Amino acid sequence: MKEKIHPKFFEDAQVVCSCGNVFAIGSTKKQLRVELCSKCHPFFTGERKMIDTAGRVERFKQRYKLDK
Asked: Which pTM does this prediction carry?
């Protein structure tokens, strides 16, 4: 590798999830913030969550008349 052209690599960079989970990885940034991790992602937890913000599903159904 050439000297002085690569970013500094942190072996113990922290990943902080919005659910509160914290773990360490190797990265060029000291701290990373994420919204989902394996502890709270529906694929890994087996939970299905439907988040309907501001009635989007109802507005869609009303727009395309899908209430059957």
From this structure: 0.58
